[in-house]
Amino acid sequence: IPEENRNQYKPIEMEGLPLTAEMLKKYGAKNMIDVYWISLYNLKAELHFELHKNEIVTFIKSDYCDLILDQIKYVHELQNLYYSLTKEELVLAAMPK
Q: Residue 55: exposed, middle, or buried by beta-carbon count in 10 A (0-12, 13-18, 19+)?
């Protein structure tokens, strides 16, 4: 391993944690059937996720418009998007006991 890179994995070899319905729930997304959403209070909008067989369609929904976003496949992409929109970290929701 080169001295400047002690990481045993190359970034290209690492994959992120897949975004799933279970992960959306862990981050506090509310749901109805195959649609999940996370409120973006500062924008008076919501991030919506429609779960389909092979993909998740993501869009921002407000009273004024719906904006379809590029596909989000991994949890870190959701975290990055949420931070970009709210300037707050997306944290795991408190799980009921």
A: exposed
